[in-house]
Amino acid sequence: MGQITLRGIRKSFSGVDVIHGIDLTIADGELAVFVGPSGCGKSTLLRMIAGLDRPTTGTIEIDGQDVTRTSAAERGLAMVFQSYALYPHMTVRQNLSFGLENTRMPKNDITARVDDAGRMLEIMDLMDRRPTQLSGGQRQRVAIGRAIVRNPTAFLLDEPLSNLDAELRGSMRAELAGLHDRLKTTMIYVTHDQIEAMTLADKIVVLRKGVIEQVDTPLGLYNRPQNLFVAGFIGAPNMNFFNAVAVDGQAELPGGLRVAVPGNGPVTIGIRPQMLHLADPDAPALTGTIRLIEALGAETVVHAAAADGTAMVVVLSGQPALRTGETIRLAFDPDALHVFGADGQRLD
Amino acid sequence: MSKVMGFLTARRGHGGRWHWTDVVTWVWLIGGTIIMFGPALWLISSSFKGPAQLAEFPPTLLPYVQELAVVDGYDDPLPLFTATLEDGTTQVLAEVRRVGTNAQMVDPANPETRIDVNIADRTPVRQIGLATDNYVAPLVANDFVRYLWNSVFVTMMATIITLLTNSMAAFALSKYDFRGRNAVMLLIVGTLMVPLSVILVPLYSVVNATGLLNSLWGVILPTVATPTGVFLLRQYMLTIPDELLEAARMDHASEWQIYWRIVLPLAAPALAVLAIFSVVWRWNDFLWPLIVLSRRELYTLQVGLNTYAGELNVQWHYILAMTVVTMIPVVLVFLFLQRFITTGIAGSGIK
Ligand SMILES: Nc1ncnc2c1ncn2[C@@H]1O[C@H](COP(=O)(O)OP(=O)(O)O)[C@@H](O)[C@H]1O
Ligand SMILES: [Mg+2]
């Protein structure tokens, strides 16, 4: 079991509010990802769940038990730190055993557990080394191993891959996903990288400035972002936004193309770069002037400026014959539009 | 070996000629060596000289002992001199006794005839040798082994307790956030400015009231809380990442285990530095032990050494020899722990 519930969590550091009231439930066995820009309070939230910090107000429950006042050790959680926080003066084996020794587990059981974790993470031949003698990826494995041996109710991982190079990050991401499938333990994973969030998560929690912007599955977030922030944050390249005014369910995009929108008054219309394609010659189209072409082979990324100067990015498949300075004519499926009201919330 | 020679004969001038920087380097290095080692070597050499030789002027560089000869008719061996006789010849004679400026001497080969020689006309026959009695007498007869043991006990105990208590204080002051933490730190550092002589009298009353007078613990306990140690260790512990302690907390470690198994091992370089300081301080302490200890069998080395400096005469030969003995442990501590000093001092942010 490992259901974690947060109710009305607020946190302030010496008078400065950092977390502004978070309500959230993470189901047993779920891999939840906290994503958001740097400084939005992801680590703070995770540390409060871990028991390393106390919320200013609000309660934390694990499996229905209020653990707000319980110490970190007694919550039965394990944490992987961004810096790994391996004990530098201990060998890998001692690093893995330390937590078990503290619970007065018999020596044989400790050895068995540590060996199991070592085999699972393929670090058996590193057991007698010290952390300083390991590469970044190996340290990462040891840090994960230290969490696994404890058999925790949930894993908490704070940007575990951010210190690795891009290639290693990719393979470790896959391994973590595999690990979660095998262990079926609740995991809370913190990252500022939306690709990690999209590929790993059962559920993504998008945070900004200490508030939850949206909680949904990865595809739910991608397909129906609830507000401008989430729409702009999820998906690469970023979504294109156009400011418009809706009158009688119609709004005009730069260049004169009219589209149906819900609501009235000023709106922001968003469309993903991948949803745009070249328009037929005489069909109505969204037009722009090409500023830069990045031909990647399988796809071509076009940076253009719309009629009113708004920058937009288009991802076209294949290698269309385009030149910088030309006018590009674009069409799209009206269902692919995302419309947001003046308050930044999704309309429809 | 050829590498060493190559290094020593290397010159900055072209073709192995002397450049002026070579000259400056050699003068600087040799001069520095003499200034650093000279006094210590002089002390060691002098500690093997007898009292008479120590009083001599000009002093000799190396220790000499006068040659003795067994002469028929005399129970004790007699000292030998080279004497210039009235007829201008020189002869090796043994001195029987001195009367005023004259010495009564005999020829060891012909002990019946006494020869009177003015003491200005003779020089002692000497060869390089060690007056080991300087060492043997205090160590065997004068309880110096006892003093040595007392000093070792005081130094060891005080250092262990200093390391323990100071590291605990430093741990709390560096890793726990509590109200008044900075005030406490300031207070501790502030006591650095209070010299021993200011608190001597109240400290004496406290030690007296607690019955620690004339006990080695009375020497040890008042010295163990050192502001320098707390400060040095705290600065070092600030560099230990908090995440390590948090990881340990997640690993079910109690605060004591965090201190004992995480913080202490990681602070080892700073602890080594403090250990060296503490050993040197306690070993060299004089004033406080002198005040607390009045029974001879409790004297530490430094206090014991003082007994050779009487009001009327100072037994320099014993003082010099025992000073060498007191130097040895300090030198040993430096030899074994010196590699920690640079890392520890650099790491604690104290230059
Ligand atoms: N111990 C602390 N004291 C004061 N402010 C803090 C502390 N920890 C975090 N903060 C502040 O809280 C905000 C959120 O920090 P953090 O949770 O680390 O962000 P994230 O992990 O999302 O990058 C930041 O503005 C940071 O400055
Ligand atoms: Mg963070």
UniProtKB/TrEMBL annotation, chain A:
Domain of life, per lineage: Bacteria
Residue runs in coiled coils: none
Keywords annotated in UniProt: ATP-binding, Nucleotide-binding, Transport
SMART domains in the record: AAA
A single cellular component GO annotation: maltose transport complex
InterPro entries linked to this entry: AAA+_ATPase (IPR003593), ABC_transporter-like_ATP-bd (IPR003439), ABC_transporter-like_CS (IPR017871), ABC_transpr_MalK-like (IPR015855), ABC_transpr_MalK/UgpC-like (IPR047641), Mo/tungstate-bd_C_term_dom (IPR008995), NA-bd_OB-fold (IPR012340), P-loop_NTPase (IPR027417)
Keyword Plastid annotated: no
Occurrences of domain ABC transporter (ranges): 4-234
Listed GO MF terms: ABC-type maltose transporter activity; ATP binding; ATP hydrolysis activity
Family: Belongs to the ABC transporter superfamily.
Protein known as: Carbohydrate ABC transporter ATP-binding protein, CUT1 family
Record organism: Loktanella fryxellensis
TrEMBL record, chain B:
Chain ranges passing through the membrane: 20-44, 147-171, 183-204, 216-237, 258-281, 316-337
One Pfam family hit: BPD_transp_1
GO cellular component: plasma membrane
Keywords: Cell inner membrane, Cell membrane, Membrane, Transmembrane, Transmembrane helix, Transport
Broad class of the protein's primary localization: membrane
PROSITE patterns linked to this entry: ABC_TM1 (PS50928)
Membrane topology: Multi-pass membrane protein
InterPro entries: MetI-like, MetI-like_sf
SUPFAM superfamilies: MetI-like
Source taxon at top rank: Bacteria
Positions of the ABC transmembrane type-1 domain: 148-337
Gene3D superfamilies cross-referenced by the UniProt entry: MetI-like (1.10.3720.10)
Compartments it resides in: Cell inner membrane; Cell membrane
Single Gene Ontology BP annotation: transmembrane transport
Similarity-based family: Belongs to the binding-protein-dependent transport system permease family.
Known role: Part of the ABC transporter complex UgpBAEC involved in sn-glycerol-3-phosphate (G3P) import. Probably responsible for the translocation of the substrate across the membrane.
SUBUNIT field: The complex is composed of two ATP-binding proteins (UgpC), two transmembrane proteins (UgpA and UgpE) and a solute-binding protein (UgpB).
Name recorded for this polypeptide: sn-glycerol-3-phosphate transport system permease protein UgpE
Species for this entry: Loktanella fryxellensis
Gene that this polypeptide is encoded by: ugpE
